[in-house]
Amino acid sequence: MLKSYRIAAPPAELGPAVQAAIDAKTKPPASLGRIEALALQLALCQHDLQPCAEPARLLLFAADHGLVAEGVSAWPQAVTGEMVRNFVHGGAAANAFARACGASITVIDAGVAGDLYWLDGLVGRRIAAGTRNARREDAMTASERDAALEAGAEVAVTAIDAGARVLLLGEMGIGNSASAALLAHALTGGPLPALTGPGAGLDAAGLAHKIAVLEAAAARRPDAKSGSAALAAFGGFEIAMMSGALVAAAAERTPIVVDGFIASVAALVAIDARPESRPWCVFAHRSTEPGHDAVLQHLAATPLLDLQMRLGEGTGALLALPLLRAACAMLSDMASFENAGVSRAPA
Question: Are 186 and 225 a contacting pair, CB within 8 Å?
């Protein structure tokens, strides 16, 4: 998957040098906790003793899912396109949070049903008008999957070439928690009932129906166990593009902040195919969607925040962004014991 993107490991000597710089700051050792670990990670990602988390850009990929025809969502499919218009017009939670934390947003049509080509400010990378119904047939062909992966990678490279130092992953797609649960099941081996949640608001009966549909879809393709095979079998286009963006960001030495359940599943797919991309992932928050914990555990990931959120759109990634900037400021702006004339604790 995206083998043309070469991901180079950080120089061997950089880790000890960054840790020495952190330890030399005017504070007791390890007293800034996970901010210190985050600073080290960002420095290694960017191959730089003084990493930077701005400018930051949210890549918000939107697509529709054929599985919606099976009644797996409480919301009609038309809401995907309606929310895309809301994003472009600046009215969604993601827009409000981006303005609050000083991030830019690129909204990408990865495969939304309906005509959105006329929307000013929308980046058109549509593969098709939504995936096929994964309960009945593969959600996408191999060529559609590969085109979606490459489109996501190209969007990421474009953002980085325009100056972004950190990318954030977000999504919108009615039915995409169903596709994400299927992908999580295929790649972690976890049981679908434990990985499947209410999404945007199913009641108990709706959730039971959703699980039954997903179990039937999984039984149709029990052989789809790799990230690339599962992606084609179960969708969706926005998940594929987030996976491609992650691989390209790692190749460009750019940290990528992963939002909630859907974005973490995209990371799972990418890391399955390109495990060397894992160090570039900063996991933003723990979603209340039940499958998210299983995915985080599989990836040995501890998210920065736990705010009982489950909206998507990159909202959790945006709220985590100030922590990345604080970690960078610690390395660049905080005095050392030597420079400040502060005595160290006795050894």
Answer: yes
Contact 188, 291 (CB under 8 A): no
CA distances from 53 to 44, 45, 65, 83, 242 (A): 13, 11, 33, 28, 20
H/E run at residue 61:
strand 56-63
The Cα 260–Cα 270 span in angstroms is: 15
Alpha helices (H) in 47-91, listed in sequence order:
78-89
**Residue 57, strand partner residues:** 104, 167
Render pLDDT for 124-181 as a digit per residue (tens, 0 to 9).
999 999 999 999 999 999 999 999 999 999 999 999 999 999 999 999 999 999 999 9
Q: How far is CA 332 from the centre of its chain?
A: 27
- Res. 345 pLDDT band, cuts 50 70 90: confident
Question: In what order do the strands lie in the sheet containing 256-258?
Answer: 122-124, 104-111, 56-63, 166-172, 256-258, 281-283
- Residue numbers annotated as active site: 313
Q: What is the pLDDT of residues 266-314, one digit of tens each?
A: 999 999 999 999 999 999 999 999 999 999 999 999 999 999 999 999 9
